[in-house]
Structure formats: C-alpha cells, structure tokens
Design a protein that fits this description.
By secondary structure, the chain is an alpha/beta fold. It has helices at about 15-25, 50-55, 60-65, 70-75, 80-85, 90-95, 110-120, 135-145, 155-165, 165-170, 175-180, 195-200, 200-210, 230, 240-260, 260-275, and strands spanning about 5, 30, 100, 125-130, 190-195. The chain starts with a strand and ends with a helix.
Length: about 280
Amino acid sequence: MVPDFMVIGAQRSGTTWLHRVLSQHPDLWLTPVKELHYFDKPQIRFGVFDADERRRARFWDLKRFARDPRWFGRYWFLPRSDAWYCRLFGQGRRQGKRVGEITPAYATLERPVWERMQRLAPELRLVFVMRDPVLRVWSAIRNRVRKGQFDGEADIAALLEQARMPGAVSRSNYLRTIETVEAVFQPAQLHCCFFEQLISDPAAFADDLFDFLAAPPLNERLRLPPAVNVAAGGREPPLGFQREMARDYLPMVERLAERFGAVPRGWLDRYRNLLS
C-alpha cells in the first residue's frame, strides 16, 4: 500500500494550505499527521519517544487520538519500517482513494534516499512548491521568532547567520532538489509549481495540482481555504538582509528563470534591482 503522491516542500511555501485542500478532495486521502518524516529521520524508531514528533502530531490530544485510535496506535507504538510506513496508507486505499503525505523536509534528501524511495514506490508522483528563496528563508526566521526560538530584534549579522545555516540553505536550494529527484524519478513524475501562483490564483493552482494527481477538478463540494492567510508574514525583511540574500541566491534563480519562466523571472528582476 505504497503512497501515490507526496508533497516534498518547500518549507514555508503553503504546504499547510495544500494539506487542507487535498484533505477535502473526495478522491484523495492524506495521513492524519501532516509530516511523517519517515525518510528524513531514520533515527526515530518509535514516534512516541521523540519530542518533536509528539509536538507535531499533538500526542496529548486525546480527542484526536480517539477519532482514529487504530491509525494513531500504529503510528505511535509500532517500530518504524517500510512495512510500517506503507500500512499508514491502508485506510485511504481501502476507501478506493489515491493516498499521499506531505513532508517539506524531503526536499533536502540526498540521492540514496530518493533511490530507496523509488524502489519502494516507483510510480510515485511528487509535488514541489517553490517560493522566492529570500522570502522563504525570512518566513522561516519569523516562524522561529513566533516560537520563541530566535530574537525578533536581532541585527542583520545575526539574521544572516540564521539564513546561512546549512539547513536553511538546503531548504532553499530548489535546483538541487529538482536535479536530484529527476536523476532518480522520471521528470514527468515531478510537478514543480510556485507559491506566488497559489497566492494569485488558488483555484487554478489547485486545478493544476489535481490534474497532476489524476484527481477530478474542483467542484461545489470543495471549499478552498483563504490563500491570503498563507501570504501573511509579518514585517518585511530589512533591506540589507534582502541584498545579501539576493546575492547568495542570484545564480540559482537565474537558472530557474531559464527553465520555468515568469515566476522566477520576477524573483530575478527583484534581486537585480536590489543589487543595482
């Protein structure tokens, strides 16, 4: 019972909105926990013993557990393995639906992990949502501020240190993700799209996504959550921060603009204006 599809990122690029939309579709089924982290956290053998997993899946939410005790019991208390992972999708498969999961951290996986994933699910369809990398990393920093993990009044040097941490850089290295995935899966199995398209026309964005997933288009049964909430990000990044980040990401964005056109071309124009 391997998954039919995965949303693999990018972090801070509307994946929570996508989870709500895909969960509403009558022909699609998503795991009750949004981020399974099966492929990027092999060190976790039982979810219940990992603090991040307890927080992410709201382990102490007994009402939620009671709605689907069999699924959550398997998720929390059975040892993780490929068989364990595949059984997490059994409920949706028995309902005759196309099944999948959303874990943005998968965008940072190395090629051997993608090869393992391809052996497990060779027909897998992958969705990758990209966002202006400067604004993506800024959104990630602001999210850390909201969680009390970073000083919201930090100077530009401290902000740049955060933005240049290896994990932050790998999450914004979209070209690396695309090239790694396409070296393992067929290019037609990867649907690349843009956060900016989600914001400007969420219905068209969703229709394109459903078409890729071989699911019927929007109808009266499906209500899109407001995309405006997805775009809300608090204060603008300082100009000095934007300039330094634009310099970092300019070479990658130039290559993305050559391949994808309009949206990354808009990023490119903005970066060049910042650096002029």
